Amino acid sequence: MTDQEGADWIPPGADLSRPSAARIYDYLLGGAHNLAADRAVAQKLETIQPQVANVARRNRAFLRRAVRFMLDQGVRQFLDLGSGIPTVGNVHEVAQAVDPASKVVYVDYEPVAVAHSLMLLKDNTNAEALEADATDTQAVLSSEPVKRLLDLGEPVGLLAITLGHYLPEVEGVFGAYRDALAPGSHLALTHLTNDFAVLSDPKIAETMRSTQDHIYPRSKAEVLALFDGFDLVEPGLTTSANWRPDRVAAVVDPEEDGLYAGVGIKR
Ligand SMILES: C[S@@+](CC[C@H](N)C(=O)[O-])C[C@H]1O[C@@H](n2cnc3c(N)ncnc32)[C@H](O)[C@@H]1O
After folding, report:
1. Which atom from ligand 1 is nearest to the alpha carbon of 24?
2. Structural domain containing residue 69
3. In a domain, 28, yes or no
4. Domain CATH code at residue 100
5. Coil, strand, or helix at residue 14?
6. Using one digit for the tens of pLDDT, what is the confidence trace for 177-225?
7. pTM of this structure
């Protein structure tokens, strides 16, 4: 037994044999839903790159700004792929603060993330969590929560915030979601790249190979291809802190910011 195995947030049958991106990210954001093995990987990442927790925080802040942007555009239903362990500023909290009738479906394949989301959402009739592999696009799109909560005939806010770089093949997956969504739907994503100094050390990808979630950094052209069928809104594909920052002071040198970030609207 490790320190927290048997804790009530760990669902029975969860495979804890390998660290997971969900729990490593939770640790980097200061959360408590992680195990010693996850913390060991997170600390190794921080040794390779001391800025890694700042990158995670800026990614999370981008998520909140992107959801607020979509709400301003009238979007009231969200499909959050690779949603992770709930933390400050979850999509349903941001969306339902603006309109309590906003609908949210969270999708993750990590059982701790899903169990914790379900616990948090037990009294929320407009939000649901689904345990599924986001690459199984048909299973996600035809799932009970998606059918019950989302109207795919109307614009949806599709969130793939630090999801794409966990997938060895992305274009088919993003293309399937795009094809299922109505015109006017929005796509927000962040994606790891080697184009900027901060996360380009190959030891980062090497370290993640000891976890359930291997990473596949992509170039600007490869990330732009994920917006095929969408018009990018200003300022186009940038890095997470630099996408419509709340304050001028929040602008960060892309070499330090590290993750590509953008929002597009389906034609
Ligand atoms: C770093 S966390 C990001 C959480 C949240 N999207 C955010 O940006 O704050 C990445 C999440 O993607 C999930 N993930 C990775 N590959 C996935 C897949 N194929 N299907 C579903 N979830 C996946 C991981 O389990 C993890 O919870």
Report:
1. 1
2. 54-205+213-266
3. no
4. 3.40.50.150
5. coil
6. 999 999 999 999 999 999 999 999 999 999 999 999 999 999 999 999 9
7. 0.97
